[in-house]
Structure formats: structure tokens, C-alpha cells
């Protein structure tokens, strides 16, 4: 049933499925674990034949739920090159495309300021109550 839902998904749902994890540096900066991939983002491939390759995203295919990365191409028999599509879950975003002001403002707005964790505050209150 789940595979059928993914296969028959509407475009607005497929749009959300094309996401990838952020690198550790971006994760600390934006306090988010993953984000939707946009054309122009730089990604690193984690799985498959092209593992370890870094490149910019050149195309996004909602039909295939995949992305085309710069430098990942195959030669055709008649000559010329064709882009190979890689599933977005097999990549990590290493740098973001910041041309879209709305996207950057949204990321910065969602980033939580680093403050004291709630666990430390609760522990301190419990110790004071015991005295």
C-alpha cells in the first residue's frame, strides 16, 4: 500500500519527498535535519556507483523522485552525454543555494537560538527543592 501511495502521489506531495539531509555544519547553523533540494544546491553523493562525488544540482525530476548532479553523466552509444538521476535520499546537502531570499529568511527564522536546554533547568530546580 505504501509503495502505491508513493507511486501515485500528487505533485505537491512529491515536491515534499525530494528532500535530503543537511551536512553537520548546516545542521548546527539552521537547527534543522533536512530540507527540500533546490536547483543550485551543492550535494555529496553517499550511496551507489558515484559515491563521494560533490556537485551542484542541475535538474530535479518529480516523476523519478530524483536529482541530476553536475559531473554525474553517462556516454551514449551514438555519442554525447546523458544525465544520470540519483535518488535524493542518497545525498547530503553541503551548501545551499541562497539566491532565493524567501528560502533563506525562512531558514533563519526557523533556526532556534542556542539557549540553555530544558533538562538542565529542571535538574537544578529539583536539587533546590530537596534542600
Please describe what this structure looks like.
By secondary structure, this protein is of the alpha+beta class. The protein has one domain (2-130): SH3 type barrels. Helices cover 33% and strands 31% of the residues. It is built from five helices and seven strands, in the order ααβαββββββαα. It has a seven-stranded mixed beta sheet with strand order 2-1-7-3-4-5-6. It is globular. The mean pLDDT is 87.
Give the SSE layout.
Layout: H1 2-7, H2 11-17, E1 19-22, H3 24-30, E2 34-36, E3 42-45, E4 54-61, E5 66-75, E6 81-87, E7 91-95, H4 101-110, H5 118-130
Parallel strand pairs: 1-7
Antiparallel strand pairs: 1-2, 3-4, 3-7, 4-5, 5-6
Straight-line N-to-C gap: 57 Å
Largest β-sheet summary: 7 strands, mixed
* Fraction of residues in β-strands: 25-35%
Number of strands: 7
Q: Which descriptor suits the 3D outline?
A: globular
How are the strands of the largest sheet arranged?
2-1-7-3-4-5-6
Number of individual domains: 1
Biased composition (Basic and acidic residues): 107-117
Pfam families: KOW, Ribosomal_L26
Subunit structure: Part of the 50S ribosomal subunit.
Organism: uncultured marine thaumarchaeote KM3_76_D06
Q: In short, what is this structure?
A:
With 131 residues, this protein is an alpha+beta fold. The chain is 33% helix and 31% strand.
Characteristic terms for this protein:
ribosomal protein, 131 residues, rRNA-binding, SH3 type barrels, rRNA binding, 7-stranded mixed β-sheet, ribonucleoprotein, alpha+beta
